[in-house]
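re: that complex we talked abt at group meeting.

here r the seqs, copy pasted straight from the sheet so there may be weird spacing, ignore it
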Amino acid sequence: MWRSLVCAALLAPAVARAQMPDFAKVQIKVHRVAGSVYMLEGSGGNIGVSAGDDGILIVDDQFAPLADKIRAALKGIADKPVRFVINTHWHFDHMGGNAPFASTGSTILAHDNVRKRMASGGTVGNFGTLKFDTPPQVPASLPVITYSADATVHVNGEDVHALHIGPGHTDGDTIVFFPKSNVVHMGDDFVAGFPFIDLGSGGSARGLMKTLEAVLPKIPKDARIIPGHGPISTPDDVRQFLADVKESVALVEKALAAGKSLDEMKKEKLLAKFDKRANAFISTDVYTDTLCNELSGKKLGVYVPHH
Amino acid sequence: MRRLALVALAVAPLATRAQQLPDFDKVQIKVHPVAGAIYMLEGAGGNIAVSAGDDGLVVVDDQYAPLAEKIRAALKGISDKPVRFVINTHWHGDHVGGNAAMAGNGATLIAQDNVRKRMTAGGQPGNLGTLKLNEVRPYQPIALPVITFASDVTVHLNGEDVRALHIGPGHTDGDSIIFFTRSNVVHMGDDFVNGLPFVDLGSGGSVKGLIQTVETAIPKIPPDAKIIPGHGPLSTLDDLKKYLQMVKDTVAAVEQGVRAGKSLEQLQKEKVLARWENQKRSFMNIDLYTESVYNELSGKKVGMNVPTPKH
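got the structure back, here u go
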């Protein structure tokens, strides 16, 4: 959830609403990442692709109106059916294409909470300045295979491992490992910019820190990283992102302990040193607001419990 | 794994090798409606569970390859829809034999991680003593599960959440118990059979693990649920509880002997498990069962666990 909201966030700083990109103008760019793994860039979250004799597996599928363009791009990589789609989380810029892909035979996989939140709908946001209502999604778009911890899809000689560690960007995040090709798709647990902590969907900055700390030792030094949004990255980029999250959380915690209000933190530009991570969706102020809401304990994410 | 070893064991009590497969020509597939949209198929090998509905079929276990046509015909009698998913409760040949045929017809195979690992590598099911079932050669790639999991997956089809749950080692180290939550049916795989369990120490199984697994599963099962055992007739939660008690009592009896420093031969001669003679089934008699439990508890022969890979 990022570029699509650029205009809305610029125009409406108080409460941002989602404005869809002009899909007719979107072009899908294909980047070869490593081995048999590709990355598609269009509008919405980056798509990871494993292509080979067994067929195609994709990670995330952006928006439904882009499905035909995505299919055309995939055909340029391999003329094989899309057998599996893994959703890294439930946001509409990552699972919007589910229904069209399911209708042509793809099996959709995701964490249990992705299906729960897609089925019920909900309010994505930071319990403050960010608020996006997502209606319940049609049954055809729901993941058919879900898991509480992990699933591995064995295709194209690759053990594609979808791993849920804990709450981070949302409470249904998956990080996807392509071990043979040495590529990791981080979903929105790693982006080029500030993280968006979706408190409305059970996300948590403290959880994100734990998730990244748990995942970094599992990533080989020379792996290539696909972020949820942004260019192909390195494990060092993820490390720096984690360091920035930890430092910013510590700063807000300290200010809260000193009895400071959100307005004071913003006025004092508490997180100014991270300004280079700001974008039109998550500005430094919006990020400060999010951390304040979580760390003050006043507004806690609604966690969907496992059954 | 039950009927297949029958003849061999009767003839060769010392070390079981050549298993005799059932006469597949004579096998008939019986269809039992269980509850809601769930059916149980009985043929040769492990019981098959079926969830049928508009979205297609979910099948749990698929017996032997030579029965594939008969199983397909039986499924067609339930529904004209394709088999979309097959879940294997574990890697034994009487539960995964039909995998290649199912995958060839478009089904996606699902199982715990260790099922795929053991099917890929092949291995030696048995009790690390006199019970050695036929050595299993590596399976062809099409027979291997395509989706695997460490802990659980849920297949959402036909308005049913079909949940495959791996608790820990039991019959093997890759067991799944399958919950059909809406229809109120549970398929226990070979963690529950109608008599003495076969604990496959050669495949990382453990009778202590089996006890823990069943103890963990029981609170998740509603009192009025229908229970499909790996082998044997449709059962109830009370049957499962009685079975658990039997396993605990037999293990306690052997454990007492082991603590007293008794040898396996002494335990067998003293018939410490004579009370449970009527629980023998198929190839599992009280002597072989005593030996299996003894091998595990004495710590001399410990099942080999396939480690889960870490990134």
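couple things i noticed - The first strand of chain A starts at residue 29 and ends at 34. Chain A has nine helices and 14 strands.
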